[in-house]
Design goal:
This protein has 210 residues and is α/β, with parallel strands linked by helices. The chain has seven helices and eight strands, in the order E-E-H-E-H-H-E-E-E-H-E-H-H-E-H. It is globular.
C-alpha cells in the first residue's frame, strides 16, 4: 500500500489563518466557520506563496458570479490591518498610516514628509506594517492595501519610484533605503491582500481627502 503524499493546507479565513500540514489541523480552523477560505497544496513552497497573495488568486477558474460572492464584504478577513497613504500634490506633503480593519483604531501614523508621492507612502506603510508584525511574531495577521504598485514594489524588494532625491525629501529617501534593506534581509511572512475598493468601498485606513 503506497504512502499518502504529504499535503499542506492554506487557511486564509478561519478560526486561525495560516498554513497547516495536516487535514485534521486545517479542519479545526474551518469546520463550522462561516465563509471559511482554504485550499490544499502539494508542497510547502506552493502553500507559502499562495498564503502571501490575495486568496482569490487561488480560485481564478471560478465563474464571475463566484468572484463577486468571494469579494463580498462578509469575506473581509477580521484578523487584519490595513495601510494607506495621502499626498497633497505630486510630489507634495505625504503621510501614511495603519489601522485595524474593523475598529479603524490607528496603529501608526507617519509624516507628513516633504516632496513625497502617494506610491512611496503606500510602499513605506506596507513595509512598516510587515516589519512591525515580524517583530511581534504575529504572522497570522493579513495586511490590506489598495495599491497594486506598493504590492509590486514589496514583492520585487525595490521602490521603483521616479521621484528625484532632494534636500527636502532626504528623510523620505532614507526611509526607503531602510525599507529596501529590511526586505532584502527578511522573508515576508504575512499575507498581503489587495483591498477591493470597487466592491468594499474606501480602505479603512483612507485619509478621507479625495
Amino acid at each position: 500500500m503506497s504512502k499518502q503524499k504529504q499535503k499542506y493546507y492554506v487557511v486564509w479565513k478561519g478560526r486561525n489563518s495560516g498554513i497547516y500540514d495536516s487535514w485534521e489541523d486545517c479542519k479545526i480552523q474551518i469546520d463550522g466557520f462561516e465563509g471559511a477560505l482554504y485550499k490544499s497544496y502539494e508542497s510547502l513552497e506552493q502553500a507559502t506563496i499562495a498564503y502571501r497573495k490575495n486568496p482569490y488568486d487561488a480560485f481564478k477558474g471560478a465563474k464571475q458570479e463566484g468572484k463577486k460572492e468571494f469579494l463580498s464584504k462578509s469575506n473581509i478577513l477580521k484578523n487584519s490591518i490595513c495601510v494607506d497613504a495621502a499626498c497633497s500634490g505630486n510630489p507634495g506633503d505625504m503621510e501614511y498610516r495603519c489601522v485595524y480593519t474593523f475598529s479603524k483604531e490607528e496603529i501608526f501614523h507617519k509624516g507628513p514628509f516633504k516632496d513625497g508621492t502617494n506610491n512611496v507612502g503606500e510602499f513605506l506603510g506596507l513595509v512598516h506594517a510587515l516589519a512591525m508584525l515580524d517583530q511581534q511574531k504575529k504572522y497570522d495577521i493579513t495586511i490590506y492595501t489598495d495599491s497594486k504598485t506598493a504590492i509590486s514594489w514589496v514583492n520585487n524588494k525595490k521602490a521603483k519610484t521616479k521621484l528625484e532625491r532632494t534636500s527636502r525629501n532626504k528623510e523620505l529617501f532614507e526611509l526607503m533605503d531602510r525599507a529596501e534593506l529590511w526586505l532584502a534581509k527578511n522573508t515576508i511572512k504575512n499575507p498581503i491582500v489587495k483591498w477591493e475598493t470597487e466592491m468594499w468601498g474606501e480602505i479603512p485606513a483612507d485619509f478621507g481627502r479625495k
